[in-house]
Amino acid sequence: MNAHPEVMFDLGGPIGRAASDAKLDRYAAAFKQCGFCRWAVESRDGAFLGYSGVMPSHEDHPLGPHFEIGWRLVRSAWGRGYATEAAKAALHDAFARAGLGEVVAYTSPDNRRSRAVMDRLCMQRDPSRDFTADYDSVGTWRGLVWVAGPEAPPYRAQSAVRERGSPKPG
Questions:
Q1: Please, are residues 156 and 150 in contact by the beta-carbon 8 Å criterion?
Q2: Integer Cα distance of 31 and 96 in angstroms
Q3: CA distance 106 to 153
Q4: Which CATH number belongs to the domain containing residue 117 in this structure?
Q5: How confident is the model over 33-40, as a mean pLDDT?
Q6: Rg of the chain, C-alpha, whole Å
Q7: Residue 4 in domain
Q8: Looking at the chain, which runs of residues are DSSP E strands?
Q9: Domain housing 85
Q10: Is residue 166 in a domain?
């Protein structure tokens, strides 16, 4: 997946096995530290389709410390709703179980597919947080930012936090 030119187009192009393995190591470290990370997305028959999930930002990110949701799917899985379904589940987990107050997403201005997923997730565009950063793999990159919180319509009903000691519903 990370070696596919079309999948990696907005991310600086394909990456090799060592860089791909380093990403997986970061995900495992995030899970150990935070209790959440990117997770595998599979088809009903168990075929690997990609990943989705929430990660803590890098220390030196232009937005400062934050939690970011992301997704990446094999090309054959595009346009089938997997990214939206998996990201919605990841946001629910981030708000309901992990107790995060905000999760951001960002993409390049020309990545219409990711922008459409953000819209379907009811994330709110926040141009005041747009940023530009220099990355070795892509050079100067402009990120457009969207924000989700636990009170957004898709998460509010699912993520309502009960007061300690209150009975479980149903």
A1: yes
A2: 16
A3: 20
A4: 3.40.630.30
A5: 92
A6: 16
A7: no
A8: 38-42, 48-56, 67-73, 103-107, 124-125, 131-135, 139-148
A9: 9-159
A10: no
pLDDT at residue 89 above 70? yes
Q: Hunting for tokens 């926040």 — which residue is that? A: 126
Q: Is residue 121 in some structural domain?
A: yes
Residue whose C-alpha is closest to residue 59's, from 89, 83, 33: 33
Q: Per-residue pLDDT for 57 more than 90?
A: yes
pLDDT, residue 6, reads 58
- Measure Cα distances from 10 to 13, 37, 135 in Å: 7, 21, 12
Q: Among 2-11, 63-72, 116-125, which stretch is predicted with the lowest mean pLDDT?
A: 2-11
Q: pTM of the entire structure?
A: 0.80
* pLDDT value, residue 124: 95
CA 99, CA 42: separation in Å to the nearest integer? 26
Task: Report how many domains make up the chain.
Answer: 1
Q: Is residue 123 part of a domain?
A: yes
Between these two residues, 122 and 19, which has the higher pLDDT value? 122
Burial of 123 (0-12, 13-18, 19+ CB in 10 A): buried
Mean pLDDT of the chain: 81
